[in-house]
């Protein structure tokens, strides 16, 4: 069945490419990677660069999942603020997390190293939905500057017009370490780089599970058994299909995006060309594409069934922020599943020689590339840096396979209601 959610602006504007459909018999390699999103591709590339033989299997095509459909916002850090991380995990771990997740921009490094053409732009603005949100943002910006020497600009309400043409927000923080990009083109660029480094990529090949054998590990795919010393499970929202136990740590929340037709007044809407995300619990996030469309994400649905008309579903959120383009023509509407953990921190770890990283909770565009590279580092036996991100506490959602989603939904609805009550 064709997936109505994948007909995105990104799919429409990615270069023509050959499908990498390899149909092979049983084989073996050092590392088998399951999933062709940012996490799997980054891991495959980094492992191949270390001289390991790599086969990556992707059930559909490269970037089919969240990596090829997201808002393209590159937001330094994790879903927790640095001060929250320090309060919970102490100064030493906070230092290490800060170095990796704020300072170490592996996406920029990959784009530069491989010359990936993906419309990379500089600048991210977090916009405050309430005066209290602005107060908390200012405090955090001060803390980042004092504690880590990390510079961002606190933008008063009166100065927001330099960034965004709406009176809706109460101030914001502009971070020039953040930015935005064309996520599918980035994923395709990573895939090309991985192949150049020697990795084999098989599209249209689903993995059905990981088996321990007398000689190591084996994954069964549509066409072959692949024996490997190491397996990397990078299937994110689908992880429970490959390893049911890991599926208990995330729930998939559907999130939707639209792209308007190119706008003659695009530069007036976002004069600094930054990506913007606001501080609502069900947030609005938006930016301009290279061809001057507004790409706008807003509204979540806890049902897995997409709205019949995605443009009609997202338009009111866009109209609230930018009434001046309330009736703009919308050319594309799409969506995807965001894998969310209970505490909104990614769930990263290893079980024997099976590595996994999932549940980036809507904050994965930057950290997934890092996670993939850290997995490769850990395989090369430099495990300390992997352990900084690995084993962040994570609890499975209660309720087993069938009750997990309704229970999580109840919790999320409560937070969404708090948003509306101000
Ligand atoms: C609509 C939307 C907007 C978002 N916006 C942002 C944003 O602006 N900024 C941000 O930081 N984050 C954002 N995110 C989150 C971010 O996109 C994800 O955290 C990130 O892309 C996850 O990458 P991944 O490689 O781990 O997973 P994915 O990209 O989902 O890749 C998993 C891959 O595994 C494949 N697969 C699944 N099962 C199997 C199997 N059995 N065998 C073989 N292959 C399999 C899938 O087809 C898929 O290609 C957004 C997510 C969505 C859905």
* Residue windows where pLDDT falls under 50 for at least 5 positions: none
Kindly provide the radius of gyration, computed on alpha-carbon positions and rounded to a whole number of angstroms: 21 Å
Structural class: alpha/beta
The total of beta strands comes to: 17
Small-molecule components bound: flavin-adenine dinucleotide
Please state the average pLDDT score.
91
* Share of residues in helices: 25-40%
List the helices and strands and how they pair.
Layout: H1 9-13, E1 27-34, H2 38-49, E2 54-58, E3 73-74, H3 82-89, H4 91-103, H5 106-114, E4 121-127, H6 131-148, E5 153-155, E6 172-180, H7 183-196, E7 200-203, E8 207-213, E9 216-221, E10 225-233, H8 239-242, H9 244-247, E11 250-260, H10 266-269, E12 275-278, E13 285-288, E14 294-301, H11 310-321, E15 330-341, E16 347-351, E17 354-358, H12 367-379, H13 383-389, H14 400-420
Parallel strand pairs: 1-2, 1-10, 2-7, 4-12, 10-17
Antiparallel strand pairs: 3-6, 4-6, 5-6, 8-9, 9-10, 11-14, 11-15, 12-13, 13-14, 16-17
Helix pairs in contact: 2-7, 2-12, 3-4, 12-13
Précis, in short:
With 422 residues, the protein is α/β, with parallel strands linked by helices. It has helices spanning 9-13, 38-49, 82-89, 91-103, 106-114, 131-148, 183-196, 239-242, 244-247, 266-269, 310-321, 367-379, 383-389, 400-420, and strands spanning 27-34, 54-58, 73-74, 121-127, 153-155, 172-180, 200-203, 207-213, 216-221, 225-233, 250-260, 275-278, 285-288, 294-301, 330-341, 347-351, 354-358.
């Amino acid at each position: 069945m064709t997936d109505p959610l994948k007909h995105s602006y990104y799919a429409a504007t990615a270069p023509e490419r050959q499908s990498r459909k390899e149909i092979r018999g049983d084989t073996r390699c050092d590392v088998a990677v399951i999933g062709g999103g940012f996490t799997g591709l980054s891991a495959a590339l980094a492992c191949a660069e270390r001289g390991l033989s790599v086969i990556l299997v992707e059930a559909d095509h490269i970037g089919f999942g969240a990596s090829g459909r997201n808002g393209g916002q590159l937001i330094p850090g994790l879903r927790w603020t640095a001060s929250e991380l320090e309060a919970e995990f102490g100064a030493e771990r906070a230092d290490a997390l800060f170095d990796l997740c704020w300072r170490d921009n592996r996406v920029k490094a990959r784009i530069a190293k491989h010359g990936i053409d993906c419309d990379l732009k500089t600048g991210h603005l977090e916009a405050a939905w309430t005066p209290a949100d602005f107060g908390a943002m200012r405090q955090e910006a001060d803390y980042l500057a004092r504690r880590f020497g990390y510079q961002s600009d606190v933008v008063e309400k009166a100065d927001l017009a330099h960034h965004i043409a709406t009176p809706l927000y109460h101030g914001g923080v502009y971070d020039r370490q953040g930015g935005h990009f064309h996520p599918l083109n980035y994923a395709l660029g990573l895939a090309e780089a991985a192949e150049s480094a020697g990795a084999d990529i098989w599209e249209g090949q689903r993995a059905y599970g990981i088996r321990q054998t007398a000689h190591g590990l084996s994954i069964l795919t549509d066409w072959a058994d692949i024996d490997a010393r190491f397996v990397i499970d990078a299937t994110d929202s689908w992880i429970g299909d490959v390893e049911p136990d890991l599926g208990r740590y995330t729930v998939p929340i559907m999130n939707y995006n639209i792209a308007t037709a190119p706008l003659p007044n695009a530069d007036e809407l976002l004069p600094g060309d930054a990506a913007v995300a606001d501080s609502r619990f069900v947030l609005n996030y938006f930016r301009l594409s290279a061809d001057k469309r507004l790409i706008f994400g807003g509204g979540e649905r806890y049902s897995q069934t997409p709205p019949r008309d995605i443009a009609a579903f997202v338009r009111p959120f866009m109209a609230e922020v930018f009434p001046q383009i309330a009736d703009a023509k919308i050319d594309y509407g799409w969506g995807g599943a965001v894998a969310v953990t209970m505490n909104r921190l990614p769930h990263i770890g290893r079980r024997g020689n099976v590595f996994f990283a999932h549940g980036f909770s809507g904050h994965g565009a930057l950290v997934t590339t890092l996670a993939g590279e850290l997995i490769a580092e850990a395989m090369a036996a430099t495990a300390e840096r992997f352990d900084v991100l690995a084993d962040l506490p994570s609890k499975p959602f209660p309720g087993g396979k069938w009750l997990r989603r309704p229970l999580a939904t109840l919790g999320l609805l409560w937070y969404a209601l708090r948003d509306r009550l101000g």
